[in-house]
Amino acid sequence: MLGAMECAECGGTGWRQRGDDGQRRVERCGCWRRQMEQTLLAEAGIPPRYQKCSFSSFITYPNEKLRRVLAKAREFAADFPVVEKGLLLIGRPGIGKTHLAVATLREVVIGKGARALYFDTRTLLSTIRSTFNPVTRTSEADVLGRVMAAELLVLDDLGAERTTDWVADTMNLIVNTRYNDRRPTIFTSNYEDTDDESDLDSLRVRVGFRMHSRLREMCEFLQYDGPDFREFDFRPGADDLLQRWRGQPRGKLPRRTRAPARAQLQDGRLELPWEGGKAGG
């Protein structure tokens, strides 16, 4: 109900009358649709920093892989909900993965009226772990229910969480449930997708072999490169990004795992607390 809304066309009812071929019909008023969009966007949980992210505000330059990822995201939003797979955006920090993921979510909400949800992966796991409250009678099931039922889910920064048995079980439950229910998901990750099972900085090792296999089934993997927006002390334009990108070295994503852990891995002494057992074994 619109209640206190003042609208010249519907009088605040959310319905407007129209005459067509001598017959009077009612249809949803534009003010109702706009309010629904705002409600759905608020419920999506997009952080304030990213609430205005859109495809039109995403800066492009002559970078073939980046432009391909943007085209794939636009295509996903246009085809939703008739999509076969979700998306997994892979690349170094600061190249706009979250921007594209949120822009896709907003386009789906505004264009299709879908119920969508955004979560940083670490925040989601922390929320689930701490949600049981005997006073409010909330539990992790309430949070998990929203995550699993969302028509579109964005999980940002996959692989950054500290992996334990509980984390692995929780993430596998979310991913498998959404896969089985055919609910598309968009992931972002700073970890490169390689086949090297001894590389602690690979996506396969970070998320576990079982989940990686499931992600391959449910998502299109899109990896691209670019300069870190955060390294600029001004708002860069296309030419600034192109120049910085051309000047930076190509190759693997920067390592984030500490040297002692990599040494243990190479020596065969590191026990991984997730599927896969002893890495390098």
Describe the structure in your own words:
This protein is of the alpha/beta class and 281 residues long. The protein has a single domain, classed as Rossmann fold. Helices cover 41% and strands 13% of the residues. It has helices at residues 30-43, 64-79, 97-112, 121-130, 140-149, 165-180, 203-207, 209-218, 238-247, 259-267; strands at 15-20, 23-28, 86-90, 116-120, 152-156, 185-189, 219-223. Strands 4-5-6-3-7 form a 5-stranded parallel beta sheet, with helices on both faces. β5 (152-156), α6 (165-180) and β6 (185-189) form a beta-alpha-beta unit. α4 (121-130) packs antiparallel against α5 (140-149). The N and C termini lie far apart (61 Å).
Task: Give a summary of the structure in a few sentences.
The chain is an alpha/beta fold and 281 residues long. The chain is 41% helix and 13% strand.
Give the helix tally: 10
CATH topology: Rossmann fold
What is the radius of gyration? 22 Å
**Overall number of strands:** 7
CATH C-level class is Alpha Beta
- Overall average residue pLDDT: 83
What portion of residues belong to β-strands? 5-15%
Structural class: alpha/beta
Query: N- to C-terminal separation?
Result: 61 Å
Q: What is the CATH H-level superfamily? A: P-loop containing nucleotide triphosphate hydrolases
Q: Can you tell me the residue ranges where pLDDT is under 50 for at least 5 consecutive residues?
A: 258-281
How many separate domains?
Answer: 1
Principal-axis shape equals globular
As a percent range, the share of helical residues equals 40-55%
How is the main sheet built? Answer: 5 strands, parallel
